[in-house]
Amino acid sequence: MPAPLDVLHSTFGYASFRGRQEEVIDRVMAGAHTLAVMPTGAGKSLTYQVPALCRRGTGLVISPLIALMHDQVRSAEAAGIRAAALTSADDNRDETLSRFRSGDLDLLYVAPERASTEGFQRLIDRAAPLALFAIDEAHCVSEWGHDFRPDYRLLRPLLDAHPEVPRLALTATADRHTRADILAQLGIPEDGLILAGFDRPNIRYAISPRDGLPRQLARLVAEVEGPGIVYAPSRDATERIAAALTASGRPARAYHAGLDPAVRAANQRAFVASEDMVMAATIAFGMGIDKPDVRFVAHAGLPKSIEAYYQETGRAGRDGDPAVAHLFWGAEDFARARRRIEVETPEDRRPGERQRLNALAALVESGSCRRAILLRHFGEDPPPACGNCDNCLNPPTAADATETARKLLSAAFRTEMRYGLGHLTDVLAGRDNEKVRSLGHDRLSVFGIASADDLTLIKPVARALMARDALRADEYGGLSFGPAARPILKGEERVDVVLPPKRERRRRDRGGGSVEEHPHDPLFEALRAVRRDLARDQGVPPYVIFHDATLREMAALKPRTRGALGTIAGVGAKKLEAYGDAFLDAIRQFA
Ligand code: ADP
Ligand code: ZN
Q: Which of 48, 307, 313, 539 could form a disulfide with 325, with the two C-beta atoms 3.0–4.6 Å apart?
């Protein structure tokens, strides 16, 4: 029986385990049942792949999506692992079954629908022994989870029929409730829970008010070279964004539920295979995309909740290289969300929804470390500054804008709470124009009471008041009081706004500086070209051959022999054999 560390070196070409991988693997090796909750990119797949290679028999992996299974099989095979999926989309099912029966598979991927049938039970009884059960995306077993899949609940008889086979449930997202549910449903003891931290240190978080979104996106895209996702709130918006980016010379596609399924699938395939494409998508896009080299995730509008934001941004930088998550928000996002809560949401769910929105308001409005806010939201106790978010890299100035806020609220009140910010600003500024005069607003006590300082603060103040539900906008932009207005007017609540320092504004818009931490290197580019050719020949995405980090290490160390190449992280025995010479040739040409 090979040792896990040897398999890590020889098959995967990695030097050491990361985070809590080793703990998880040790438990599986010892035959214990385990639930591993680890963030995206932590390397969950390795925790069942390695024991499946070390233990006798086949590792059975339950996975919810065909696309995910095929991704996994492709990557496993590239590393020399004997893997196959058994799905309606595979026409080599007979071959797979006979390989499974004769013990010629390290990993077999199946959907829960198939795994829970009696026919599958009988198949297992006649097949070679099982090395382990891996239950991927295990939150699907819980009604509390966000992707409940009833068939996950039918897996228990299969698991219980083989009590000696270790169970490993894996997920990136599970709150306390969901975790307890997974343990109970899958028969995993409480001490089998391994909970890794939520932090994704390679993701740089940045949040800016929307202020000319096309220009802001163009800047982000110019700044970050690799593949990216822009989440947009509507189908139209995804198409507009994709068209604008394409026109600017960056390959881009749209993805939303209204597209012809064939077009949608083609767009997804093109994105997965690409090294520089931007996908403008509704939130329907993402689950089942295991692309490790996504360099940025942008939000063109407010996400649903901090949980959703965390999950969506988590699709950036799975390979561990630097990545950016940039959220662009507007006060109207909050206005719309608040209207939806008050109008469309059943009454008993409103308090929870309001809380969700307030948590988002606190995140976007804050002048302090974004990562710390996120991690605290998930119950962690992070250091107060991370050094890798917009506010840490480029601290904004906070201004006490309580007086300005009170003037704005008074103006809304005196004009009977039906006018938009433009008109209220005119009144406060004392602009004696046609509309102001015809409405008689030049005779109000609030006419002309704003100072020049008030006027520079008025937009951020309006944004802050709308985000925290002190002002509500109707469909036409007319502003009226929300529940948070009175305490501010009475002087019980302060209103602070954060202001990016003027000179820094451009830099801050880009998330606090460049992510381009790697200077241009012609050898690296040449190695990427080799990778592209190999990927095309084999019909796989480039990252299946090698990750960028592996190519970068090759470019830095310039190995001249197979032996030297084999010491580079990510170069396992199979890949060395299959691709080594192509890369060595390219390196020699540069020497
Ligand atoms: P997850 O499923 O947790 O999101 P993956 O299993 O897709 O993460 O792994 C993310 C990436 O990290 C993969 O490309 C994997 O090869 C790489 N990886 C996993 N474990 C290690 C390790 N110990 N050392 C270096 N890279 C690793
Ligand atoms: Zn920070």
A: 313
Residues 156 and 21 placed together within one structural domain of the fold: yes
Closest Cα to atom 15, ligand 1: which residue? Answer: 43
Tell whether 580 is covered by a domain.
yes
Residues 135 and 269 in one domain: no
Mean pLDDT of 507-525: 64
DSSP state of 200: -
Instruction: List pLDDT tens digits, range 402-412.
Output: 999 999 999 99
Residue ranges making up the domain that contains 431: 399-499
* Beta-sheet strand order (sheet of 130-135): 83-86, 107-110, 58-62, 130-135, 167-171, 34-37, 193-195
24 and 65 share a domain? yes
Residue 30 backbone phi and psi in degrees, to 5: -85, 0
pLDDT at 38 exceeding the cut of 90: yes
Residue of 499 and 369 predicted with greater confidence:
369
Query: Are 23 and 81 in a shared domain?
Result: yes
Same domain for 352 and 456? no
Instruction: Report every protein residue that has its C-beta within 5 angstroms of ion ligand 2.
Output: 369, 371, 386, 389, 392
CATH of the domain at 481: 1.10.10.10
Task: State the Cα–Cα distance between residues 569 and 208, nearest whole angstrom.
Answer: 37
**226 lies in the same domain as 186:** no
Q: Which CATH number is 217's domain given?
A: 3.40.50.300
pTM of the full predicted structure?
0.82
State whether 390 and 408 are in the same domain.
no
Please count the other Cβ atoms lying within 10 Å of the Cβ belonging to residue 237: 19
Atom of ligand 1 nearest to the CA of 547: 14
For ligand 1, say whether the CB of 17 is within 6 Å of any of its atoms. yes
Cα gap 405→212, rounded to integer Å: 24
In whole angstroms, what is the distance from residue 106 CA to residue 51 CA?
A: 10
Ligand 1, residues 107, 318, 550, 551: which to mutate, most atoms within 8 A of Cβ?
318
pLDDT at 128 over 90: no
Exposure string of 271-301, with b = 16+ CB inside 10 Å and e = fewer, is bbbbbebbbbbbbebbebbbbbbbbbbbbbb
For ligand 1, atom 12, which residue shows the shortest CA distance? 43
Give the pLDDT of residue 288.
65
* DSSP characters over 302-345: --S-HHHHHHHHTTS-TTSS-EEEEEEE-HHHHHHHHHHHHHHS
Q: In this structure, is residue 12 part of a structural domain? A: yes
Q: How far is the CA of 74 from the centre of ligand 1 (A)?
A: 15
Q: Of 150, 166, 195, which residue sits at a domain end? A: 195
Q: Are residues 246 and 383 in the same domain?
A: yes
- The verdict on the CB of residue 546 being under 6 Å from ligand 1 is no
